[in-house]
Amino acid sequence: MNSSIIIGIAGGSASGKTSISRQLKEAFENTQSVVIIRQDDYYKDQHQKTMEERIKTNYDHPFAFDNELLVEHLKTLTSGGSVEKPTYDFVHHTRSDHVEHIDSSDVIVIEGLFVLENEELRDLCDIKVFVDTDADIRFIRRLLRDVNDRGRTLDSVVTQYTTRVRDMHNQFVEPSKRYADVIIPEGGQNSVAIDLLLTKISSIIHRNVV
Ligand SMILES: Nc1ncnc2c1ncn2[C@@H]1O[C@H](COP(=O)(O)OP(=O)(O)O)[C@@H](O)[C@H]1O
Ligand SMILES: O=c1ccn([C@@H]2O[C@H](COP(=O)(O)O)[C@@H](O)[C@H]2O)c(=O)[nH]1
């Protein structure tokens, strides 16, 4: 295998980053050539904190992440190695007890809020993508997802969004759009943009085969 390439996918919370990454992975499911790493899995461990303290954490600030470990893992993967990736538990706001074994791959997709905001991460990305979804749509998607999948109440989603998510998005996530090579409006249903990425990935995999 030639050295891996990294596709970075940034964008606001609930913009559609995970949905797009999933579609890229599924298209190459049989080849094992695409691996997805979520920046969310690198939220700092909070086992030492009480639940009350965890709820007060600002999860929308870059400091909430262990980006040092993420960068180290990406470098290991691009040089052909394997990593034991942490996993994150959104219901309990802390790292889970299990890790996932991840092998290197032709294409590594790294998706997360601050993938383009963080200079070290950004510089590791060969292709930089920003998922650009309007704030009202992101809020509606987040509300539904967090209540259905992340154990939240309607009130808690509204409070977190208005006190943290919106301001942090405007301060850190939105300005990072300027670093993108490709901007995908509205996320997961944009089949033209997704096809373009699939074609690019296909050419990388093919290049590594011949
Ligand atoms: N184009 C879309 N139309 C409708 N719902 C969507 C679309 N893209 C994503 N969603 C839904 O919105 C929620 C957030 O999407 P997700 O891909 O998890 O965003 P992110 O990873 O950016 O936080 C999920 O429940 C997902 O199913
Ligand atoms: O313990 C936590 C950790 C994170 N969050 C929120 O999650 C989003 C990031 O995930 P996306 O999949 O990109 O939406 C971030 O906006 C945090 O506010 C949380 O609520 N609790």
UniProtKB/TrEMBL annotation:
The keyword Ribosomal protein does not apply. It comes from the Bacteria. ATP binds at G11, G12, S13, A14, S15, G16, K17, T18. It catalyses: uridine + ATP = UMP + ADP + H(+); cytidine + ATP = CMP + ADP + H(+). SUPFAM superfamilies: P-loop containing nucleoside triphosphate hydrolases. Residues 6-192 form the Phosphoribulokinase/uridine kinase domain. HAMAP family: Uridine_kinase. Belongs to the uridine kinase family. This is Uridine kinase. The gene is udk.
